Amino acid sequence: DSGVTQTPKHLITATGQRVTLRCSPRSGDLSVYWYQQSLDQGLQFLIQYYNGEERAKGNILERFSAQQFPDLHSELNLSSLELGDSALYFCASSVGNGYEQYFGPGTRLTVT
Amino acid sequence: AQRVTQPEKLLSVFKGAPVELKCNYSYSGSPELFWYVQYSRQRLQLLLRHISRESIKGFTADLNKGETSFHLKKPFAQEEDSAMYYCALLVTGRRALTFGSGTRLQVQP
């Protein structure tokens, strides 16, 4: 077990709604990364936080946002949901930049 | 921009046969390469990191900078090796992994 936890495991919601996904990194890890895994796009990097600060942005839509709290857990907020947002959302953590990343179990989001 | 290519979507072999999962990358600098494995309905797990030069679960991978490849190999496949395998690249100065599209390995009895 890598120690990264994510809640909820599954989420089913309707188009236009807003959801929040939560991630707790491994003990001691300061970096948190969010990835989206979909059938057509594969694994895509969304955003990274390091010790509370945003450090890198990938293919993250403007409807999506994230933050990392003082206790280092992170939340990914997805709003105005569309059918195409249905995917597995993974969180990963690492000690710092340039170190191997350890993944959480993912949250499966289904937008109906 | 950096890119990782895994040309095979599916690789099917029989138990005991050798396995080679191909990975090619494009990046002009000195990358760090990783292999991650995702068993059915489970999280991605780090399998190998090229810097460590380890052998995990019988798998090895050698970085070939001349051919810009990082193929994953195992001499004798086991049924429990059946999973999705992702090659990933970490570029100096960037923070996020760039993943290939993945190869599904099916090991038949």
How would you sum up this structure, described in words?
Chain A has strands at 5-7, 10-13, 19-24, 31-38, 42-50, 53-57, 64-68, 74-78, 87-94, 102-103, 107-111. By secondary structure, chain A is mainly β. In chain A, β4 and β5 (42-50) form a beta hairpin. By secondary structure, chain B is mainly β. Helices cover 0% and strands 44% of the residues of chain B. Chain B contains no helices and 11 strands. In chain B, the strands form 3 sheets. In chain B, strands 2, 5, 6, 9, 10 and 11 form a 6-stranded mixed sheet that branches. The radius of gyration of chain B is 13 Å and the shape is globular. Chain B starts with a strand and ends with a strand. The model of chain B has no long low-confidence stretch (mean pLDDT 90). Chains A and B meet through β5 and β10 of A and β5, β6 and β10 of B.
Key attributes of the depicted protein:
heterodimer, A: 112 residues, mainly beta, four-stranded antiparallel β-sheet, 11 strands, globular, B: 109 residues, six-stranded mixed β-sheet, three-stranded antiparallel β-sheet, 0% helix
